[in-house]
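Box 3.1 A note on notation
Throughout this textbook, protein chains are presented in two layers. The first layer is the amino acid sequence; the second is a token string describing backbone geometry. Keep the layers aligned when reading.
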Amino acid sequence: MTIAALTESKKIDTKALEVIGTLGGQVTPTDAQAKTAAALLAAKWAAAVG
């Protein structure tokens, strides 16, 4: 989901976006963030897809 899509659907947290500001270019997670995300995905995937 993109910021544009969230804005269009009116589901964006405008206060959080104001704090973050404009994001430029590609955002790449750190190795630690990627490993944490992979572990979370592995743990929750089966329940999420049914």
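The chain has a mean pLDDT of 87. Residues 31-49 form the longest helix (19 residues).
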